[in-house]
Amino acid sequence: MNQYYFFPAFRSVVAGCCVFLCSIAFAGENIDPRGIFFNRFSGGFSGTEWFQTIPVAGENRYSLNDIFGGGFTATITLEGVITLDGGVGNGSFSDPDNYVITPDLGGTVFTFVNNRAPLTSPNFPLQLSSPRPANTLLAGNWNNVLQTINPETGVIGPPSNELLTLTTAGNTLRITDPGGLFFQGVFENGVQVAYRRIVPDPTGVFASFPDSDINFAQDMLGETMFLNVNEFVAFFLLQSRAPLGSQVQQMFRFTAARVNPFPFGDVNGDQVVNLDDRLLIEMQLGLDIEDDNFNLAADLDSDGVITTNDLALFDDEEVILVTGFEEEALLGVSANLVAPAMAG
To answer: Do the beta carbons of residue 250 and residue 2 sit within 8 Å?
Structure first.
C-alpha cells in the first residue's frame, strides 16, 4: 500500500460542458443528489476536491460543500434543478451522477463540475447516525486485491495482491496492511463500516466520525461493506492535506476474502458446524442489520435479516441425520464422525 499517497492524481481537463449542463436538467428518473462527488472547479483559481451533498432541514434542501464544510445551501428539485441560496448561482444535474453549478463568489463566477465518486451510491456514509458494536468474528487475516480508481474518469488500475489484518475494538474496525498503514472506521450497522477523518477537524455534521482514524497524512472518507462473513468490498477516498487549489485526490478499492473462510453455517467462528450454530441462528431470529446483536454469520441468505429461511438453509445444506441419537444431528463438516457412530 505504499502507493496510497505518493502517486500523482490523474488530471483530465473538462472543457465546455457547463454550457448545456447548467441550463438543462435531467429528464429521466428522479434525482437523489446525496453522496460524495469529485469536483473540478475553475474561476478566480482552479483545483479539485472531494465535494459532498448532505440533506438538511426542509423539502428538497441540501448542503453542497467540501469535506471541511465550505460551500452552499441549496434547493434541488427531483428533476435535478439546483438553486443556490442567496441568489449566488444555480445549476443542474445532467444525470443522477453528474451536475454543474456556477456560483458567484465575491463577484467572480466559478464553475464547479461534479461527478459522483466512481462506484459509489447516494448511500455513501457522510454522516454517522449511531455507531454499533463491532462484530469480533470479522477480525483475522484477509487476502485483498487492491486497485486504484481515477476519481474523475473512473478508470480502474491494475490489481495488486496483499495480506490485510482486520482487528475490532468497541465499535471500530481497523484494516492494516503489511507495512503497518491502517484505516479505522466505525460500524454503522451490522454489515457497513463508515470512515471519516479530516484534519483540521471540522465541526457539526462535517466532523470526523468518533474513533475513525488513519495513520498517514491524508484526509479520509470511506466505507466497507461485508457481503458475508467471508468477503468484503471497501472504498477509500483520500485527499492531500494541502491548501485549496493544490489538493490531490485518490481513490482505492479493496476486494477481500478471508484467508481461512468460515464453513457455511459456522455462526460462532470456531471452524466447526454443529448444533451450537443452529441454536445461535434460532436466538438471532428476527434481528436485522440495524440491531446491535445482529451476527452476519447467521444471515445465511445474505438478505440482512435473520429468518426461518436461514434455519432452512442450515438444515438443507449441512445436517446429516444419524439413527440411534434420538434425532440429534451431526453436521456435514463433522461427517467423519458419522461412520464410527453408525458402526457402534
So the answer is: no
Nearest Cα to Cα of residue 186 among 214, 206, 151, 165: 214
Dist. CA 311–CA 330, nearest whole Å: 15
Structure confidence by residue, pLDDT tens digits, 110-156: 999 999 999 999 999 999 988 999 999 999 999 999 999 999 999 99
Q: Choose among 97, 103, 89, 125: nearest CA to 44.
A: 103
The CB density around residue 143, as the number of other CB atoms within 10 Å, is 13
Q: How many domains does the chain have?
A: 3
CB 309 within 8 A of CB 299: no
d(CA 264, CA 266): 6
For residue 97, give the DSSP letter. T
Instruction: Please tell me the predicted confidence (pLDDT) of residue 27.
Output: 55
211/295 same-domain check: no
**Enclosing domain of residue 29:** 18-116
Asked whether the beta carbons of 280 and 274 are under 8 A apart, the reply is no
Question: Do 215 and 143 sit in the same domain of this protein?
Answer: yes
The model carries a pTM of 0.85
User: Where residue 218 sits, what CATH number does that domain have?
Assistant: 2.40.128
Whether 123 and 34 have beta carbons less than 8 Å apart is answered as yes
